[in-house]
Design goal:
single chain, mainly beta, OB fold (Dihydrolipoamide Acetyltransferase, E2P), 4 domains, 5-stranded antiparallel β-sheet, globular
């Protein structure tokens, strides 16, 4: 087992100092965890989960803070500065994440959000990133079937929808008509496979399609009612945003579900509320 720079690691405390504790970094030697990051009660011999990276002096350092993205992962991050070295992105740590000019697909400007991939420079042990992500995706045939649940990172707008990274392996498209609520570049969302085309292109949807979607929302409505005293003020007159925030479906799907439950005589409907039938 080895300690990985740019990843979360569980390391053992081997030495205490006034300014922090030293951790057993295995092949990397002892690594300092500064005092401000030490969990209360941590002692020599204890294990602690930390992220390892190089500080501003290019020395290995540990932190208990968890960055927004780790080495080997994709993310959508916002650029906070640009200088003669490259662009720097906020990834949740004091030292910003560098995307060198040579690793920029298009020139990055301050304030922009870009999809990027984080990797370890093997020559310097510095954690850097690239916006040239196309070559890292679509390296195999998509294994999905309609209705499969996937994790996506929202990318650029196109004429037809949002280009998205699917399960850190493929490109997919979330069409505008399948978007519910507000979606922004860099958002991490759960989505569903709408279709895998013959050419391997993937169509996505924020909500499930077909029978499984309807069945799930029926169960969700009943569970919500049972958890709220048998009544709710969310009706077919409620706003699409309220419905989506509560049940993660469109207003049209919600109305169909209420209709189905009403026909099954499981609920009573009025203008003001929905009630479970006793």
């Amino acid at each position: 087992m080895s300690t990985n720079i740019g990843r979360m690691n569980v390391l053992r405390v081997v030495k205490e100092k006034d300014f922090g504790v030293y951790l057993d970094g295995e092949q990397l030697g002892e690594i300092l965890l500064p005092k401000r990051y030490i969990p209360k009660g941590l002692r020599v011999g204890d294990d602690v989960e930390v992220f390892i990276y190089l500080d501003s002096e290019d020395e290995l350092i540990a932190t208990t803070e968890r960055p927004k993205v780790q080495v080997g992962e994709f993310a959508g991050l916002k650029s906070v500065a640009v200088n003669n070295v490259g662009a720097f992105f906020n990834w949740g740590l004091p030292k910003d994440l560098l995307v060198p000019f040579s690793q920029q697909k298009n020139r990055v400007e301050e304030g922009q959000t870009h999809l990027l991939f984080v990797y370890l420079d093997q020559h310097t042990n510095r954690i850097v990133a690239t916006t040239k992500v196309d070559a890292l995706l679509n390296r195999e045939e998509p294994p999905y079937r309609t209705g499969d649940k996937v994790d996506i990172i929202v990318g650029d707008r196109t004429d037809i929808g949002f280009k998205c990274i699917v399960d850190s392996r493929f490109w997919g498209v979330l069409f505008y008509q399948d978007v519910i609520g507000k979606v922004y570049k860099g958002d991490k969302l759960a989505a569903y496979i709408k279709r895998v085309r013959d050419d391997g292109k993937i169509d996505l949807s924020i909500q499930q399609t077909g029978y499984k979607k309807v069945k799930n929302i029926l169960d969700d409505i009943i569970e919500y009612l049972e958890a709220n005293g048998g009544e709710m003020a969310i009706t077919d007159k409620s706003s699409p945003d309220v419905i989506f925030k509560t049940f993660n479906v469109s207003k049209a799907t919600f109305k169909k579900a209420l209709g189905a439950l009403y026909k099954e005589q499981k609920i009573a409907l009025s203008k003001e509320k929905v009630s479970l039938k006793k």
